[in-house]
Amino acid sequence: MTATICAGLALGAFPAVGASAAPGDAWPSWSHELGGEFRTAAYESGEWVYRNGIGQAMGPNVDGLYREDYFASIATGPEGPPPDLRGDVYRHVTYGAFGFDRSTHNGDYELPQDRETWPDFTADLAVLAAQVDDDELFLRLRFTSMPRPDAQIATVTFATAGSAPTSTQWPNGAGVSSPWTTALTLWGTDGQLDSAAGTSTLSAAGGAIRTTLDERFWEVRLPLAALPAGPWQLTGGAGLADPAETSTYWDVPSGRSTTAAPGSGANDISDANVWSLLFAETDDWQHDERHQSDLLASGEVGSATAALDVQQLRSGVDTAEAARTGRLSRFFHSAADLGDGIGRSGGSVPTGYPFVPPPGADLRDPAVNFTYRNDLQPALLYVPAACADGGCPLIVWLHGVNNYPFEPFGLFLGIEQLLEERGYILAAALGRGDLFYEGAGELDVLEVIADMRERYDVDPQRTHVMGLSMGSIGSHGLATRYPDRFASMSGFTLGATDLLPNLRHVPHLISHGQEDFFDPGARSTAPIYDELSALGYDTVYYDWAMKTHDSSTFYDIGVPLFDRLDASVAPTAPAEITFIRPLDSDDDVALGLIHDTAYWLHDVTSRDAAVPGRVDARSHALSDPLLDPENATRSSTPDAGLELPSGRGAHNLNVTVPAYVDAAAAENRLTVRSEGLAAIGVDTDRAGLVLDGLVVDVAGDGTTLRFDGADGFETATLDGSAVTVAHADGTVSVSVPAGDHVLVFASTGTSPSTGSGTDPALATTGGGLAALGAVGIAAAALLRRRRG
Asked: Closest by alpha carbon to 572, among 464, 509, 504, 487?
């Protein structure tokens, strides 16, 4: 294949554009963040940054079908599931349950199946950035995956804004057209600049191109004199470089891809060889690349443009587009870079799943477990109009196995209306794929929350986590590992954890169908509710008689669910804490995931790495009402659910409303009961305690207590006898042996009242659990407001 030069351009004997730039010439530094909203542009202190997005390199819509069209027969045809399930099953497969959505994109192009050579997201152009220095323009192209410099090829075209040149084919076999007068093409370590004057070459050897493979960047320097007068109208995109001639776009043949060649994914071809199109914005900001796939299918991409002004770059101005609302997509630069592409492992569609693929459905990756490796990771959002500038509570949604963050937007009927009415931002996390939100999957959720707090200033006391299936298991896991980070957790269809006592201050809801083919009769769910109820915790269990593993388990309860969220506020420093330290094997030190903190307790360390230790602690300086489990109100109410949307609403509603008793007058006292812990750290300020004069009632099998902010404190007694006080890094620590003891810190030499040892509530309830009565979820809501 030979390079295609636009009609009307003459090839001239021009010198290399970078010839005047010696290889040692300095390249500028870049300060922009990689993450942000998909398909947005901004000037940022001397840089212009266009964030195109990630996971969008799917090429044109070759077969004319959109993602939701592939399974339309499920909703209308005589085959398949029973009519009362058909709508739910259609939504499940359309929005990705068990991997079906991985077969049904809008764009149809498939990468070669040799994923080591062409990993997923090759040619996925994530960010285009620009800056000027004297008489040069510098461009930086950041790809999602970049296995080697010559795996992809990219084009950026320039035209003087307002000049409206004739639409012309992009050079080098791109197969699409737009209005331009100068086109930059990059491949490997080389490139070219095409204009009416001819073609000039660029190269790394000439100092015009730089590749940073480990960071997946291309950089290029262009003399401003070689470009048309600004400001510019840009178009651009990227595709695969032809291995036989890397200066050209790889022609995509019809049919499925092979090990060594891409495919159109359909029994037809498109002239477009561009996979990832820049500037393909849409008015409604949907979560997928539908608009891009339509433009590439047409071959005319001139409506996908952006403006770039050199004077704005020189001025160092900061600009931003007006805040967008509704459906949005964001991505962020993760601290974990696991390599390029997607790791795949075995999986299967569960037995009993009520769906048979319709005739002709070309399923590619259903039921295969994915691990998304790249350092750029997405989150799909819904931002209500009232929350454009932030300040709203946040729901973090965790998807089910083999699924994608599209999930809640198709499966939870009415969720966007509820988000608008109640003023909640929703962020659906990827969790790195199918990792059950552990390890890198856990980190992903924490990074999504951090990104949302930075962008939208969400209230940390009103961050809620919920999910379906694997997402429900993940919600349990995250809420129990990090109980101080969530105001509530809700799980739909499944839940499993051995750390349930940690949910003392995290209202819990589980919704599960008795016909669930993963867990018939809700065998795993009822014991979760029973344990939380016995502890006197705030918990609700919807036990559905006619539901399977389907999304109606949550959309049928949308209004009461949001009522519950409205009433849930996480305490920042509760008087009582129960914390079972997860196993050390659950930690990931390399990723910074250490599960040793809850509210004002920190550095909680188990004595045996294979045995989870536990601490129940109470600060008597804090005046929160105290939980009283024996007097909690517990009810179980049958409901035919005739008015619910699914038509399968028969259920039993099980509710435990916590009860509280008022705390005694505040005093400078701490009660600690521990088992299996080598050490416990106490943030004395957050706990409202003062070390001078502090009385600590300690019971258990022995531990070391560390107190913050008191370096140099010398005097303490244990059961009336002097005890050694150790000092390190602004803390003091005392080793307390097994048994019941009273530890007193007193610098004046006088001992305050020592009491009689362990707090009776802690000793008799195995965790300081106590109770009082109330009626129904409404009463629980009032109590939660009081507690928060």
From this structure: 487
